[in-house]
Specification:
Length: 422
């Protein structure tokens, strides 16, 4: 009898056209967040399962943002693996900047599939869906339990997606490990991510006529001074755990970080970063602004707490009595999230990626936020392996079709191996 890995690879090859068509159809359904309506996209995934007689459920705390879940148990006891992906994607932006003048075209050209969200993360979510269906077909050769969670609202924090499942439907998410298909590129597999801290600063002054600058402070000028002073948070020095410090110092890891996220990423991963995303103030040119709002995105590295960063900020605000601050992060955690950089699933992903793509991905952490944090913060290892983030959050987002099929192969083989597939 052929090994399960041989069977899965043959079935993936035989169904390649179907899998690509499924991804193409998924991309052609707009699911931008905001506004976050994923009903049509979720229906496509649900129909795929229904056509194969696979039981599933929709959990929708917000009707227009349903979460698709499914689960099966193998005949023998064992571990519980969770497959996770999201359905919502970034807004498309200016269609005229897209090569094909339609961000939702799903056009295939020169071996690449184009469309908003194909990399982040309809490629990975489709791989999870197909992996679930393939392993269900061969469940008699597995042990334990497999869950599929295709969630909404990831792009705006996950409170009504993965977060809601953890709070209200733990049977689908509280497994022994999570495999996620967010963009990573064939060269990396990801085990952790920095903690986002989103803050809104509000500056209030009396205000006055623009010619009477002696009558009031300018809220906008105070904001300018504040923004410069906030750079102090970037000088805080983290002290990561030894296993993380070893990984971050590894020259191979540093090179992979810079390759997958751009030159300088390896340094930024170990630093507090500050981005002033929004500045709003003033009513009219000849009026001294009486209010200004500054929104900041701070990313906290491993080995530094939110409390330490906030202490630095409150120290700065002692010099700004006109300023109040409110946290707008949706996260309740206090530190960057991570799991074992040498975990079992990570090694399975490396082994199978090398087998099917000829590339052994390097274990790295990432700069951005993903739903994998819900698992890591619950003490459950979660690893990310997906396609390259080509055009992600920009125009002409695309994935290589061969890379998509390799992501599917790696997910299917790694999930089967984790569940004792023979």
């Amino acid at each position: 009898m052929s090994s399960l890995s041989e069977v899965l690879l043959a079935e993936i090859a035989a169904g390649a056209d179907e899998w690509v068509s499924l991804l193409q159809a998924f991309v052609r359904i707009p699911t931008p967040n905001p506004p976050g309506d994923t009903r049509a996209g979720t229906a496509l995934l649900a129909n795929f399962l229904a056509a194969r007689g696979l039981e599933h459920a929709l959990i929708a705390p917000i009707p227009e943002m349903p979460n698709l879940v499914a689960q099966f148990s193998a005949p023998r006891p064992g571990r519980h693996l969770v497959l996770n992906g999201h359905i919502d994607v970034f807004p498309a932006g200016d269609a005229d900047r897209w090569k094909h003048k339609d961000p939702w075209s799903g056009t295939i050209e020169a071996g690449r599939l184009y469309g908003r969200g194909v990399a982040d993360m309809k490629c990975g979510t489709t791989a999870s869906l197909i992996t679930y269906a393939l392993l269900h077909r061969h469940r008699a050769r597995l042990t334990g339990k497999l869950s599929l969670t295709c969630v909404s609202e990831e792009e705006t924090g996950g409170r009504w997606g993965a977060g809601y499942l953890f709070a209200h439907h733990p049977e689908y998410v509280r497994g022994d490990c999570c495999l996620n298909g967010e963009p990573s590129s064939a060269h990396t597999v990801r085990w952790g991510e920095k903690l986002p801290l989103w803050l809104a600063f509000t500056i209030k002054t009396r205000g006055a006529h623009g010619a009477y600058i002696h009558m009031s402070e300018s809220a906008s000028l105070i904001a300018l001074d504040l923004m410069e002073r906030l750079e102090a948070v970037t000088q805080l020095v983290p002290t990561p755990a030894p296993e993380i410090a070893r990984n971050l110092a590894d020259p191979i890891v540093r090179a992979a970080l810079d390759r997958s996220m751009g030159p300088g990423a390896a340094d930024l991963l170990q630093q507090v970063t500050l981005n002033i995303g929004v500045v709003e103030g003033g009513l009219k040119t000849n009026m001294i602004p009486s209010s200004c709002r500054v929104e900041a995105d701070i990313r906290i590295p491993f080995g530094l707490s939110k409390a330490e960063v906030m202490a630095c900020i409150h120290n700065i605000l002692r010099d700004f009595p006109q300023v109040s601050v409110a946290e707008e992060s949706v996260e309740s955690e206090t530190h960057a999230n991570w799991c074992d950089p040498e975990g079992e699933m990570l090694h399975l992903i490396q082994r199978h990626a090398e087998q099917v793509a000829g590339i052994r991905p390097v274990p790295i952490a990432t700069l951005a936020l993903t739903d994998a944090r819900w698992w890591r913060n619950a003490g459950i290892p979660a690893y990310i392996y997906g396609c390259a983030p080509e055009g992600m959050a920009s125009h002409d987002e695309s994935v290589s079709i061969e890379e998509f099929l390799n992501v599917l192969r790696v997910h299917a083989l790694s999930a089967a191996a984790y569940l004792g597939g023979a």
